[in-house]
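Look at a sample.

——
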Amino acid sequence: MSHFSRITAEIKDIEALKRACSKMGFPIEDWALCRHYFGKTLKEKVIKLPGDYDIAVKTEGDHFILEADLYSGQVAKYVGADAKDLMLNYSKEKIESEAMHFGLFVQENSNNSIEMTDPDTGGKIRVDFDENNNISFQYSGFGEQCLKFKKLEETLGILKEFTYTDEFYEEQKSTDKVVLKQ
């Protein structure tokens, strides 16, 4: 393993959020009324949910935050407690779209894991998601070249931990072939 990173998910890409919502069956509308306990309020972007309440998507600096009326579990029924299901789907969408920019092959292993392979080096990146919207990256087979994927991590959220592993410091072995003549 070249290095290990842990990131807390943050919504930075509205298009990835739209794809995640679409897969979950929820459209995002621009300048729409967001339903809540005390009525409806006009918001910049609204995730329309099937129940009585919706989720507003608010721009805050370089990212977006979700705002919703959490009364009686109406919103949690569709997107999970603290929007965990929605954030998981967003993170997967964002990782898959960013991986394409790097030319990585993406394979989803389970609901909580994605594996990416670099076809040039054969290196692998395993991405695990936990219940607190944390994303863990584990790199293997890259050595110090794993750093070229730092941008991938940065697009997903706030870096909480970064640790180099022994593989990062190992010298790259030569792959030259030697042919002996008889």
User: Anything to note?
Assistant: The chain has two domains: 3-11+86-169, 14-83.
